[in-house]
Design brief:
CATH topology of the largest domain: Methanol Dehydrogenase, Chain A
Number of strands: 33
CATH class of the largest domain: Mainly Beta
Helix content: 10-25%
Shape: globular
CATH architecture of the largest domain: 8 Propeller
Number of domains: 2
Radius of gyration: 23 Å
Amino acid sequence: MRRLQRILNTSLAALGLLWAGLAPAAAGEAAMALFRAHCAQCHGADRLGGMGPALLPENLVRLKRDRAARVIRDGRVATQMPSFGKLLSAAQIQSLVDLIYTPPARKPAWGLAQMRATHKVFVDPAGLPDHPVHHADPMNMFVVVELGDHHATILDGDTFTPLKRVATHRALHGGPKYSPDGRFVYFASRDGWISKFDMWSLRYVAEIRAGINTRNLALSDDGRYVMVANYLPHTLVVLDAVDLRPLRIIPVRSGDGRESRVSAVYTAAPRGSFVAALKDLPEVWEIGYRGAAFRVRRLRLADYLDDFFFDQSYRLLIGTARDDRKGQVIDLDQGRQIATLDIDGMPHLGSGITWKYRGHTVLAAPNLGKGEISIIDMQSWKTIKRIKTDGPGFFIRSHENTPYAWADVFFGPHRDEVHIIDKRTLEIVKTLRPVPGKTAAHVEFDKDGRHALLSIWDMDGAVIVYDAASFREIKRLPMVKPSGKYNVYNKITRSAGTSH
């Protein structure tokens, strides 16, 4: 028996094909069974992605096999990836690694023909009403994304009364984006569906599947184009914002043919362009949309950008790589890095906000890897303070009309806390525990900054409305794992207190 075990162990190490004494075909079937049991819910039964990214060799170029095994075993910090080290043996984990690095029988493709086959127009845009069918202030409405059962609630921001709850595609991601006038909102789901919803008539206008595994979308400031960033296939897709017709596919690859996922795409409205950071190439692309040219300007960087933030002018891009110890400041006009940031851990720059502090504009960013919030002077690019928190956080939010910033403690034992920071002193002045034991996350403000809305991130969750001055609870709305809450006015005016 011992001799047989030594033979099996030797074969496993040498070939990477046997698992628990199975022949290669059986080992592959066993790995697929493991994948369906533990991975498919987030990554898709066909490995093409869902809430989690697609697990195919072309999407894993930055992740070595030994690190992939560690991620399966130990989980991944600041993601929803759990650890399986206590559930799976080392051989089982290795079999999953071998599986995800095995190319599929047919390379997934999603071109114009596939998109057009999914395109639906539910109502003629020309036939939409010329006034809202409700009495809510169109500028002070919210979209609340409820991830728990894939719905969105349209909320009156004056009375905090739900106007309508609508089904969405699974796993919305990247934040809904509003048209320049705030009338329409565009959703992107992780499995590539793009939907257009009318905030006046409270109905869907159109939808299309623009990718297989999608990161986010951006909308041009003239309201004409939607740009979709895909993880799979490796493309940027341009849609007509009126009815979501596909207009153009932009392959994302380097000059020598290497392909890349897109980390995210954002609208740089003052520049009349979309800006996209690439996941697998150390480049940023700026794509002008005025005149419908969509020419790509490539900015080559010293490192990858997994997370990034823009200043209010959209001239400066501040980014960091997941495994880097420094951030980089990129001047888009000059097309080069102009500064390095002293931010370690894993700053969540995508959630960064700015305000004036002692005559200087500062950037505040939570940290996904440690309990602190970095305050950075945006003139000297020095970190002027690290505010210690009770654990790693995901979001920090504020408003021009409040002296306070609200920061969650999303990860760890204190995930039920929210810190309130005085922007004038850079000190925590209060810590709330809205529902002990349940994750409190993602504060957003109403149009005037008088109220702060907080999510209880739980299937039996809620949106809690606070008075932003007294921190007193005003109202509690039961919801199913509510995530982001997006105020029309704050988003379309690019408030410094929230992401855009």
